[in-house]
Amino acid sequence: MPGKPRASRRDDILATFVRHVAERGYEQVSMADMASELGMAQGTIVYHFGSKAQLLRELEENYMRRRIADLKLIWDQLSAPDERVAALIYATVLMQVVDRYATIATQREIVQLADDPEMQEIRQMRDELAGMLTEELRRGVESGVFRPVDVGVVTVQIFGSAQWMWTWFDPAGRRTAEEVAATYIDVFLGGLLVDRFALSRLTDPAGPMPAVVRAAVAPTHKVAAS
Description:
Layout: H1 9-24, H2 31-38, H3 42-49, H4 52-77, H5 81-98, H6 100-108, H7 120-142, H8 151-162, H9 177-192, H10 199-202, H11 208-217
Helix pairs in contact: 1-2, 1-6, 4-5, 4-7, 4-11, 5-6, 5-7, 5-9, 5-11, 7-8
């Protein structure tokens, strides 16, 4: 039986960088340490990426492309605005499990996006992701599913609430990702929905909503240890 194909050196370097950023923070990452761990010359890393900043750009770009692709898959399965908002929250929390190192790395280093002109495309992808949520909130308000709210502020609240999750959420802890997400959904959609009757269906950690989300995101990511 053929063995699993070995990742390329470039893939190995990027995966190691992602883990180091998640564990140490970008400023503390040493290319010399990475080279030593990988058993290669530091010049090999420079050959493939040029600089540590370029490694960060690729980390961020790859992560955002995965997130947008995941959400589009989920959107194909769900159409109602309340379902899509709930699904986005489930997906956001599940990233702490199925794409943990990259999620922590991007959450730790979001400030690095602010001034780097080379990060413009990545900022645009972040705006696209946020825009997908804003549009569902707007649809929900216009259709009478959600109460009239400032959808821009709610978008920031939902994404902002997950920004520091890496500091406290433990995938091996007593609360599963689905249970944590269900609590978030209960708070956010509980305050948004005009008719709260559907809330129990959206907040069931063992129900159809998280199943749809996990089916969309899990096959595209390698499960990473915390």
